[in-house]
């Protein structure tokens, strides 16, 4: 492992953002999983998106005292994830950047596998992975979100659904900046970015295994409903149609399907996600 860490070709940043509503325990677990990797990041850029609670601030102080790689950027006011990531990405020192959310848990070998993949596939701009979703305990997986792995399949898939689990991606910073970087786009800043990358003919990939445990359950589904989501998705679909990524029939079908899912109750939405949009969990399908 040491040879990988001293090789400049394998230097990379991790980009995270945190805001005041994050659960301190979840945040601590997320940070711990980043620093307990088989391949340690050379830099972790953490954007404080507005004022935080005392508990969250103390966690940052504790990790900063033990990990010199932690680079903290403070925003005086809450700007939203898109703007926080835009600012954070510009502050990343290395071309290879891994995204991470402030409440999920990386598997110990996540970064090592993604660095090795991008080193071998220099034509790929962004690589993600599958995720295993849980509510309370990562040993009790509720669902697995599997995604296509090859560029051609991903470009077709993204007409209908997000082709990446955002918290799992690692990408080449120069390519992201070439299409304008992260931009504010309510709740869909990542999907908007992937579309701009696809329009510019950059190449995508997913590693066909889970490299992260993601918090799901009813709390997550509550956040994925409501009119704000419908409005944001309609704007994204208009962008996709105008750029030629989808046709008028695909636009209409997409808008109808997504609007129904966003406006139905969380229990029915949970059923749809579990039985139609996720892989059923078996003992043999869960990796550690």
In brief:
Belongs to the glycosyltransferase 2 family. This protein is an alpha/beta fold and 288 residues long. It contains twelve helices and nine strands.
Describe this structure in words.
About 45% of the residues lie in helices and about 20% in strands. Strands 1, 2, 3, 4, 5, 6, 7, 8 and 9 form a 9-stranded mixed beta sheet that branches. The model is unreliable at about 1-5 and about 280-288 (pLDDT under 50). Helix 3 links the parallel strand 2 and strand 3 (about 70-75). The chain is of the alpha/beta class and about 290 residues long. The protein has a domain at about 1-105: Spore Coat Polysaccharide Biosynthesis Protein SpsA, Chain A, CATH 3.90.550. The longest helix has 16 residues, at about 225-240. It has helices at about 1-5, 25-35, 55-65, 80-90, 110-120, 150-155, 175-180, 190-200, 215-225, 225-240, 250-265, 265-275; strands at about 10-20, 45-50, 70-75, 95-100, 105, 125-135, 145, 170, 205-215.
**Topology as H/E string?**
HEHEHEHEEHEEHEHHEHHHH
* Named CATH architecture of the domain at 1-107: Alpha-Beta Complex
Q: What's the gyration radius in Å?
A: 18 Å
Query: How far is it from the N-terminal to the C-terminal residue, by CA?
Result: 20 Å
Give the class-level CATH name of the domain at 1-107: Alpha Beta
Mean pLDDT: 88
Category by helix and strand content: alpha/beta
Continuous helix count: 12
Which residues sit in consecutive blocks of at least 5 with pLDDT less than 50? 1-6, 281-288
Q: Can you tell me the CATH superfamily of the domain at 1-107?
A: Spore Coat Polysaccharide Biosynthesis Protein SpsA, Chain A
Strand content bin:
15-25%
What about the largest sheet?
A: 9 strands, mixed
CATH fold descriptor of the domain at 1-107: Spore Coat Polysaccharide Biosynthesis Protein SpsA, Chain A
Domain Glycosyltransferase 2-like: 13-175
Family: Belongs to the glycosyltransferase 2 family.
Protein name: Glycosyltransferase
Keywords: Glycosyltransferase, Transferase
């Amino acid at each position: 492992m040491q040879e990988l860490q001293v090789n400049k070709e394998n230097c990379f940043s991790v980009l995270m953002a945190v805001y005041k509503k994050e659960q301190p325990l979840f945040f601590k677990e997320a940070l711990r999983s980043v620093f307990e990797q088989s391949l340690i990041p050379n830099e972790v850029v953490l954007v404080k998106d507005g004022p935080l609670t005392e508990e969250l601030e103390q966690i940052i102080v504790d990790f900063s005292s033990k990990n010199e790689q932690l680079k903290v950027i403070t925003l005086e006011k809450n700007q939203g994830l898109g703007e926080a990531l835009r600012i954070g990405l510009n502050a990343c020192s290395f071309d290879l950047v891994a995204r991470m959310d402030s409440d999920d848990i990386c598997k110990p070998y996540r970064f090592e596998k993604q660095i090795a993949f991008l080193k071998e596939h220099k034509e790929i701009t962004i690589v993600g992975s599958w995720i295993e979703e849980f509510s309370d305990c990562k040993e009790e997986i509720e669902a697995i979100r599997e995604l296509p792995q090859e560029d051609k399949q991903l470009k077709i898939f993204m007409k209908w659904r997000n082709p990446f689990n955002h918290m799992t991606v690692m990408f080449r910073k120069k390519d992201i900046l070439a299409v304008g970087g992260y931009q504010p786009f309510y709740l869909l800043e990542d999907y908007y970015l992937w579309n701009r990358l696809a329009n510019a003919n950059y190449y995508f990939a997913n590693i066909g295994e889970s490299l992260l445990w993601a918090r799901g359950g009813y709390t997550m589904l509550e956040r994925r409903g409501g009119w704000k989501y419908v409005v944001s998705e309609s704007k994204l679909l208009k962008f996709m149609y105008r750029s030629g990524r989808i046709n008028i029939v695909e636009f209409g079908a997409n808008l109808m399907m997504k609007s129904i899912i966003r406006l139905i109750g969380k229990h029915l939405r949970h059923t749809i996600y579990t039985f139609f949009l996720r892989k059923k969990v078996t003992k043999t399908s869960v990796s550690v």
